[in-house]
Amino acid sequence: MSVWSELAEWIGRRSLAVKRIIGMPLVGEVHHRFLMEPPRLPDNRFGKTTKMPTILEIYISEDHQWPLDIGSKVKQIYFKDYPPIVFNVCFSCARPSWYGVGDYGNPLSHWFNVFFGFYEIDVPKSRWKRPFGFESAEGFEPCFDDLFRIAKSDWNYFSNNIYGVPDEACAACDGVSMSGVEAKMVNPSVMIGDRQFVECRLDHPKVVSGYVSGQDGKRLLNNNGVFSPIWRTVFGRPKPSPDFPMSFVPTEMRMQIVETYYEEYDEDLGEDAFKTLIAGGSINLGYTGNIDNGAFLKAQMDAVICSMAKQPFGKKKTGKAAMWKTQRNSTS
């Protein structure tokens, strides 16, 4: 385990109670940690990444969440008839340049509209009756409709609407029909530590981007107050290209994940909950450059699974230096 992972675990264990007592807004948890070691790509051939160790928490419910009220908007668009959802995420993306421009907003880059990382999605057992992302609590059959809706929520609103993409541009990609979207089981059993995951993917979900061309008069807005400039600092500002005259150009993505779930009392929900752990990566299927997109996605998946294997996603370790084994039979 790295020094950072040891430090994050030590702080996480001792500070989680403080976090709960003072009610730190927007700070969430992934498997009892609000600090995690972010996934890092195994080499630099795909570029350097950001390192965001804190967990962002968003309530997808009708209740307003101060100071970032994006969850109630997503509730109305994607989860109107669903019980509440607690969304937690820790992610990595392309590292911006020293002057603040990032490949996340560069349509010529393999990083365009791409991020990868960890999620925990908590739902109340009494009202959901099944874990988020699964068809039932009796097995490991993925619910692709759940995964599709949360992917659209994440790209269109938790990432790009906060980044500054206008509501009308996001709304153009709001459709919840999975027509044209390919859902695939990649591996029904992936063992990470002593916990079983299922690996699956979605191809061709259409989502908005944060790209601004500088040619059509459109611009980014501060949709969410101070958070929009913060998001642009994290992701980097867009990089205009004369070959792409349209701002907020939609992209078709591939999202590949491993997921599992457990059951536990949840203090945010105030009742027993299903807790779905998700880790995964993404690629822009429209990218036509020299980088091997398949190798890029594999590097992301290897990174998140390696990082999960170093962190407490299974049963407790027998010693602080114990290493977990990861068995993953397919990466196709």
Give a short synopsis of this structure.
With 332 residues, this protein is an alpha+beta fold. It contains 7 helices and 8 strands. Strands 1-2-3-7-6-5-4-8 form an 8-stranded antiparallel β-sheet.
Number of extended strands: 8
The average pLDDT score comes to: 86
Counting DSSP H or I runs of 4 or more residues, the number of helices is 7
Kindly name the structural category.
Answer: alpha+beta
Distance between the termini: 28 Å
* Rg over alpha carbons: 19 Å
Report the biggest beta sheet as strand number plus sense, adding barrel if it closes: 8 strands, antiparallel
Q: Please give the order of strands in the largest beta sheet.
A: 1-2-3-7-6-5-4-8
Share of residues in helices = 25-40%
Please explain how this structure is put together:
The structure is a single chain. The chain is an alpha+beta fold. It has one domain (3-159, 184-199, 256-327). Helix content is 25%, strand content 23%. The protein has seven helices and eight strands. Strands 1-2-3-7-6-5-4-8 form an eight-stranded antiparallel beta sheet. Strand 6 (251-266) and strand 7 form a beta hairpin.
Summarize this structure as a short list of keywords or feature phrases.
332 residues, alpha+beta, disordered C terminus
Helices and strands in order:
Blueprint (H helix, E strand, L loop, with lengths): L2 H20 L33 E5 L10 H8 L6 E8 L23 E9 H4 L15 H20 L3 H5 L10 E11 L2 E13 L19 H9 L15 E16 L4 E14 L8 H18 L15 E2 L5
Antiparallel strand pairs: 1-2, 2-3, 3-7, 4-5, 4-8, 5-6, 6-7
Helix pairs in contact: 4-6
